């Protein structure tokens, strides 16, 4: 390949990853791999100045663009740039050497070392201390206005604390999500049979870009700098941190004001020890010239300041043997390849499985069973296989053929058109059967005691059951021979199945495993229609008229009931005597009849479950997000953004006491 061809191919590849990362909130490769591609392109461009392009035409000279349709555009008063980055301490010293050429009289330069937050960049504008606007970085010059999505977050006060506020100021920071919140949302997704999000950063970026609001997801913001400021009274970056902090905004919990690059390096090492205790992910340190006058003198390139550099921490990696490739099949039939590894210590945990993402990733990286592979845990919660080491490969190794592997395993699947994903074609696939039945029996659905994954596995592999209805034709004699079963446990299981027939309708609907339909939606539709028969015959339009049921969910319900196999399943569950029809709760008399109540914060004496049960018993509906359709917000201590939103929308806020009076 000629240099020209290499440059063109790298530019196209980087542009594709940029599009995925900034606009689609997704990524195919790790940040480190991405940075490597970019570095390769920089070197080639430097070696071939005749192939140079205008900054807007090469990814090495422009800021990645996050703008999407549907948001109003806003021009930053001062550009929001990227940062030059390095993974090497030598290059960090080169940065200092370059700056010393600009300030030759200085023996050592004053730096501020800050944690580099791995979130989504945002600019908040405050006018005379009042919050007016939140904007994404966009292309650095112009971003998307996401004010409505962020207003009301606990980290964004409407009014700054203190008195001396600039007339106009752009405050810069990063939006992020905690690992706990990420896990909570993914659990909900799993519950609804939806694909899981890869890492908190991607999810944060997708969340702030939702057109219909951020759907009750908890986001946080840390602020670390400023853009345009009128009047500008600050002399140093340290002063800016102090002011932002004094205004009641969140800043990083620790920054280091140091003299000279060696002291900066020590601060970076200290940060590396500390950073895992922060509740946001950090991917490095940012070293900035502290003096603002000097920053001005050093200036900017087309994409980054010359007075700052990001030193990035290498993601933690380990080498191990890939024992085998297996697949995981989601409840909705998505087939994901998984690496079964020789257990290895990585970032403080033992890792024995890692994701291989999809077929294309396996062939692109040429990963084969028996290979020695490098596993990495970066921002992701799930470790990934980064690459294999061909030199350590067994002599008889063959490239891995995913399609042939699926066939060998008897998994009937096909590749989804235009995607790298595979999906199961046959509903009789044992793995998917197990997932569907385990979901049905789980605590969140029919709550059938003694019917966990291990028991379902045995029942499926002995061909005793194929779907949820088959459970109800099991006899004591069928169950007794199962592993670890004796007279008593076999009897208990049969009794538990019998009892489950009386579970409320919403649990049965949730247990059907309709894509997108979680527990709350099941309660909503059960309360509204009161029977599976009625639900099977309603149109998408009727469904969307119910509070809490959106278009995608309605389509999914409609499609599920249109399927002949599913209709037969419902008929059989009915024949076995399950609770397929019950009183319509929404027309049930009660002080909250037809009312929607949102719970937020900690109540003095009621738990969440108790309060929800009381709302439902009073004929109301408990919802998780505040909207115009909300009638009451029941707020306790540390109520946060939902309470603020309710106040803004003029919704009645109830204390526990007032709530008790209303329902009792
Ligand atoms: N994996 C992929 O496919 C892929 C694709 C595109 C970009 N990326 C990642 O994004 C990076 C490029 O993105 P970028 O241009 O946003 O650069 P960057 O994230 O490396 O650095 C610039 C950004 O850092 C943020 N930041 C966090 N803490 C800061 C602090 N204390 N001071 C100043 N800024 C701070 C700011 O938002 C700033 O815009 C790449 O290096 C890579 O890590 C990955």
Automatic annotation (TrEMBL):
EC number annotated for this UniProt entry: 6.5.1.2
Active site residues per record: 116
GO terms for biological process, alphabetical: DNA repair; DNA replication
Keywords annotated in UniProt: DNA damage, DNA repair, DNA replication, Ligase, Magnesium, Manganese, Metal-binding, NAD, Zinc
Molecular functions (GO terms): DNA ligase (NAD+) activity; metal ion binding
Gene3D superfamilies hit by this protein: 5' to 3' exonuclease, C-terminal subdomain, BRCT domain, DNA ligase/mRNA capping enzyme, Helix hairpin bin, Nucleic acid-binding proteins
CDD domains named in the record: BRCT_DNA_ligase_like, LIGANc
Alphabetized InterPro entries for the sequence: BRCT_dom, BRCT_dom_sf, DisA/LigA_HHH, DNA_ligase, DNA_ligase_AS, DNA_ligase_CS, DNAligase_adenylation, DNAligase_N
Binding site for NAD(+): 31-35, 82-83, 114, 137, 174, 288, 312
Highest taxon of source: Bacteria
Cofactor(s) of this protein: Mg(2+); Mn(2+)
Cellular component annotations (GO), alphabetically ordered: cytosol
Residue intervals of the BRCT domain: 587-664
Coiled coil: none
The protein's role, per its UniProt record: DNA ligase that catalyzes the formation of phosphodiester linkages between 5'-phosphoryl and 3'-hydroxyl groups in double-stranded DNA using NAD as a coenzyme and as the energy source for the reaction. It is essential for DNA replication and repair of damaged DNA.
Family: Belongs to the NAD-dependent DNA ligase family. LigA subfamily.
Name of this chain's protein: DNA ligase
Provenance organism: Rubellicoccus peritrichatus
């Amino acid at each position: 390949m000629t240099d020209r061809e290499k440059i063109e191919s790298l530019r196209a590849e980087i542009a594709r990853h940029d599009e995925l990362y900034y606009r689609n909130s997704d990524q195919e490769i790790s940040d480190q791999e991405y940075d490597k591609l970019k570095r390769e392109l920089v070197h080639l461009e430097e070696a071939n100045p005749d192939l140079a392009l205008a900054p807007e035409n090469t990814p090495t000279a422009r800021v990645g663009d996050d703008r999407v349709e549907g948001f109003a555009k806003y021009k930053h008063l001062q550009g929001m740039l990227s940062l030059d980055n390095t993974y090497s301490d030598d290059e960090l010293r080169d940065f200092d050497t370059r700056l010393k050429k600009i300030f030759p009289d200085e023996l050592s330069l004053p730096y501020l070392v800050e944690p580099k937050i791995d979130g989504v960049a945002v600019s908040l504008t405050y006018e005379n201390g009042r919050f007016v606007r939140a904007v994404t970085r966009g292309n650095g010059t112009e971003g998307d206005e996401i004010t409505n999505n962020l207003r009301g977050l606990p980290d964004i006060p409407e009014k700054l604390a203190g008195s001396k506020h600039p007339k106009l100021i752009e405050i810069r920071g990063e939006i992020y999500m905690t690992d706990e919140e990420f896990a909570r949302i993914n659990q909900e997704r799993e519950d609804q049979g939806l694909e899981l999000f890869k890492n908190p950063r991607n999810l944060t970026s997708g969340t702030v870009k939702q057109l219909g609001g951020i759907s009750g997801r908890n986001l946080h913001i840390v602020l670390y700098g400023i853009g345009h400021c009128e009047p500008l009274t600050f002399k140093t970056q340290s002063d800016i941190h102090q002011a932002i902090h004094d205004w009641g905004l969140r800043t990083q919990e620790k920054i280091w004001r140091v003299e000279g690059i060696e002291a900066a390096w020590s601060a970076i090492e200290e940060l590396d020890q500390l950073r895992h205790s922060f509740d946001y992910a950090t991917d490095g340190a940012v070293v900035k010239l502290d003096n603002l006058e000097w920053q001005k003198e050093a200036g900017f390139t087309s994409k980054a300041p010359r007075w700052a550099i990001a030193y990035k921490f290498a993601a933690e990696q380990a080498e191990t043997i890939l024992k085998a490739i297996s697949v995981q099949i989601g409840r909705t039939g998505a087939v994901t390849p998984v690496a079964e590894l020789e257990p290895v210590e990585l970032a403080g945990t033992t890792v024995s499985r890692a994701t291989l993402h999809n077929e294309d990733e396996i062939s692109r990286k040429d990963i084969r069973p028996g290979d020695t592979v490098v596993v990495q845990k970066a921002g992701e919660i799930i470790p990934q296989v980064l690459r294999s080491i061909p030199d350590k490969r067994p002599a008889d190794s063959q490239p891995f053929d995913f399609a042939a592997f699926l066939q060998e395993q008897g998994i009937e699947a096909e590749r989804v058109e235009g995607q790298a994903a595979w999906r199961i074609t046959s509903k009789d696939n044992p793995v998917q059967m197990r997932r569907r039945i385990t979901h049905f029996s789980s605590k969140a659905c029919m709550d059938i005691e003694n019917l966990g994954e291990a028991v379902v596995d045995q029942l499926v592999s002995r061909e005793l059951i194929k779907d949820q209805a088959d459970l109800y034709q099991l006899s004591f004699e069928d169950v007794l021979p199962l592993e670890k079963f004796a007279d008593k446990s076999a009897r208990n299981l049969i009794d538990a199945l019998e009892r489950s027939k009386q579970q409320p309708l919403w649990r049965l609907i949730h247990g059907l495993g309709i894509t997108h339909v979680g527990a709350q939606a099941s309660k909503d539709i059960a309360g509204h229609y009161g029977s599976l028969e009625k639900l099977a015959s309603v149109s998408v339009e009727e469904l969307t008229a119910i509070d809490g049921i959106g278009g995608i969910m309605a389509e999914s319900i409609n499609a599920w009931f249109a399927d002949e196999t599913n209709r037969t399943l419902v008929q059989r569950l009915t024949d076995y005597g399950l609770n397929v029809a019950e009183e319509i709760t929404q027309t049930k008399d009660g002080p909250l009849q037809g009312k929607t109540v949102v719970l937020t914060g900690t109540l003095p004496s009621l738990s969440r479950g108790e309060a929800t049960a009381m709302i439902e018993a009073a004929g109301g509906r408990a919802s998780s997000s505040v909207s115009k359709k909300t009638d009451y917000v029941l707020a306790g201590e540390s109520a946060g953004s939902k309470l603020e939103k309710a106040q803004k929308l003029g919704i009645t806020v109830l204390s526990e006491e007032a709530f008790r009076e209303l329902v009792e």
